[in-house]
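Annotated sample (chain length 207).
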Amino acid sequence: MGGVGHLSSCLEDYLETVLVLKQEKKAARMRDIAKHMGVAMSSAHSAIKRLAEAGLVNHRRYESIELTEKGENLAKKILDRHNLLTQLLRDVIGVHAETAEKDACAIEHHVSQETIRRIMEILPPEKNPAEEKTLKNIEPGKSARVVRVRAQSRIRKRMLDMGISPGVVIRVKRMAPLGDPMQISILGYDLSLRKNEAASIIVEPTD
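Output written by the structure step:
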């Protein structure tokens, strides 16, 4: 029972954060990890030290944190697990898309590997990521429906709080002069998203 690799839910979130920062910023520095997690630097240092002791990250003072091969594989499994649970709740059980996303966030750290394997057996495979379209690719003046948010749990929760959840239609209004950020319209109000945030939102065009 428990999360992937028997890490605590808190350490799983830290591991996800390192992966996401590496993808978005090419480097995962301690101050950025603390900011993403909403914790003090001392708490981030303590968690990264524990991940290093587990052989999941490498960290030298004043340098960025690097995932080991084992750590990277584990972080990817954590994200995959969330997406799998969301798909099960939404497409098989029939839970409303927004509720499915929130419930997956709540239970993803407490599901056994046996359960995950059985879910994988009954669910149809999702599209290859290379075939998926993200909000980043939608042109100004066009709209798209959110399919899912492909980001680590804390970022997913923040986007849900902004109203960005599966089934919601987003209209891209304009791009900043240098292409970042982009302004979107959602649920009757406007907000701005960085391109790296928009790249984590999987969508299907509506026009």
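Annotation: DSSP finds eight helices and eight strands in the chain.
Annotation: The mean pLDDT is 83.
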